[in-house]
Amino acid sequence: MNISVNPKSVDANLAQTVLPSMHNPVHFRRCEEKAQAKRDSQTPSQVSDGINVKDSTDSEDESFSSSCINNMVCSLQVKKKPRAWMFGADMLKDFEEDPKLCLNAVCALQRQQISAAKSNVGFPSGVLGHRDVLSIRALGEYLMEGDPQHRLRKSVSEVEQQRPDVLSECLNLAIIHYERLFAIYRKEEDPFFGPQ
Q1: Is there a single domain that holds both residue 34 and residue 98?
Q2: N or C terminus of the chain: which is more exposed, having fewer CB within 10 Å?
Q3: Pick from 70, 72, 68, 78: which is nearest to 15 by CA?
Q4: Which keywords annotate this record (predicted)?
């Protein structure tokens, strides 16, 4: 059985699903109508060859244009749901692109260490080396700043200003322990760790 699909209709349907307001020119038309009404309300002495020669400043026009543009941008924005990681490679790719995710990854590993210590179970042997355990603990404490739920409290910009080396350390730890982090994600063991 062979099914043929018209790529143009698929693209159009996808675009309408993802960006429905883009194909609905209501916002554009409203802005154009408001701009035209404003131009029509000016007397001929205020307009010379399409240029406004009114004595007042252009701040009114700029604020109007700015609000029109803001309305159009807002209408085009789509709330993006975080995509699910199907494979560890998806997560690794996101680590490379998102420093905040790497910070969250270290916090997730630290939360795992904390819960393992409380339950006296510990990590399975060989999962974390002694050096990594110490690094994760130190970085986790720095990133969580004593948060009672052990959530990330530092922003990427704060870390860049205070301790820029932490970003690369977190990336390295996230990459080294991506299999453990992917298991944490797949088993939903950590409510604060996942795609953003």
Answers
A1: no
A2: N
A3: 78
A4: Kinase, Transferase
Question: What was the pLDDT predicted at 127?
Answer: 60
Q: Highest mean pLDDT: which of 31-40, 91-100, 127-136?
A: 91-100
Asked if residue 68 and residue 107 are part of one domain, the reply reads no
Instruction: Give per-residue pLDDT as tens, 184-195.
Output: 999 999 989 988
Q: What are the φ/ψ torsions at residue 149 (nearest 5 degrees)?
A: -95, 5
- CB of 195 within 8 A of CB of 94? yes
pLDDT in tens, 119-172: 766 555 456 678 888 999 999 999 999 888 999 999 999 999 999 999 999 999
Same domain, 108 and 163: yes
Query: Which residues have CB under 8 Å from 2's CB, separation 6+?
Result: none
What is the domain range of residue 145?
A: 88-186
Please tell me the pTM assigned to this model: 0.56
How does DSSP classify residue 52?
Answer: E
- What residues contact residue 41 under an 8 Å CB cut-off, 6+ apart? none
In a domain, 64, yes or no: yes
Work out the angle between the directed axes of helices 178-186 and 99-119 (0-180°, nearest 10): 80
Boundary residue ending a domain (76, 110, 125): 76
pLDDT at 61: 59
Could you tell me the two tokens for 131? 């050096």
Q: Is the CB of residue 170 less than 8 Å from the CB of residue 103? A: yes
